[in-house]
Here is the input.
Amino acid sequence: MPRVVVFDETGGPEVLRIVEEPVVEPAAGEVLVRIEAFAVNPLDQMVRAGQSPRPVQLPRARLGIEGTGVIDALGPGVTGLSVGDPVILAALPDFATRGAYAEYVTVSANQVIPRPAGLSVADAAAFWVTYFTAYGALVERAGMRPGDHVLITAASGGVGRAAIQIANQVGAVPIAVTRHTSKLQSLIAAGAAAAIATDREDVAEATRRHTAGAGADIILDAVMGPGLAELSLAARLGGTLAVVGWLDPRPASFPANPSLTIHRYMSFADMADPQTVTRVAAFLAAGVRTGVLRPTIDRVFGLEEIVEAHRYLEKGTPAGKIIVTV
Ligand SMILES: NC(=O)c1ccc[n+]([C@@H]2O[C@H](COP(=O)([O-])OP(=O)(O)OC[C@H]3O[C@@H](n4cnc5c(N)ncnc54)[C@H](OP(=O)(O)O)[C@@H]3O)[C@@H](O)[C@H]2O)c1
Here is the structure.
């Protein structure tokens, strides 16, 4: 029988275990996907640890909001897809029952998109959530345009690296932020026009230096926490702050820049809109075709190493996505 990762209680990485479960035959409008790889995301860690933003039913709860694989079976009424098609699982909001941490998953046919040619299996598993989030926050919400200076926090991570590439695709100027001087070079190599290390520089002061004194047009923040007040001072007068994450779990301070337009961006909300999904998929496929968009993979684990993969995520220092091949 196919293997599935489940947890019966919330806690550390060791609560994850592999069990065998029968596949769920696809009902009308559904497809069965044989998963080839999935991504390990910070949300998975929160859910496993008991900090899920939505209720999770125990025991035998599942995890995994994105992955890639091949269509194995079609439910009645599904059109436009065939058995054998390579697809990306375009976010699974009902991950606790139909998560991607498995050899097979049954999902609604509108939760899969074609896998762009030219993406490896690992790249495809790393692609959707981070790139959708960076694109949605920067382009759909903040209205990023060519020439905009875009300050990106947690730039070493999955969303951050996607944001650097998307800013370059649009013709904007990405300025990356990391906590560690040792990561500056890798961020420049990843396409950042400039990089700021908060272990040696003041972020607002350094941003002004890189923007001829003006400040950033847009800040993309995945950290929040007490540093938010000071971070907001890195934006220009009338700039935009788009918050996508909360990597710092401490209470956030109120932005000290009173002229900012602030967006709280949640990609799952946009992923429920088929027109937005089509638009984003087209933008991302074009970026893959031209070679501008290419996920950064930090490490690849095997399914049997799932506990190790979560331990690695918990260190909080990935330089790109963590992928598990099935
Ligand atoms: N809104 C949405 O729809 C959406 C979608 C996907 C993800 N997210 C959220 O976005 C955030 C980033 O996701 P990701 O997948 O890019 O994460 P990730 O790949 O795990 O990257 C995290 C990076 O952020 C930095 N970091 C970690 N902890 C930090 C802290 N306490 N303070 C400052 N920097 C810290 C580290 O870089 P340095 O060591 O270089 O500083 C690390 O490499 C998460 O909170 C995630 O839940 C939101």
Q: What stands out?
A: The mean pLDDT is 95. The chain has two domains: 3-127+295-325, 130-268. The CA atoms of residues 168 and 174 lie 7 Å apart. The first helix runs from residue 42 to 48.
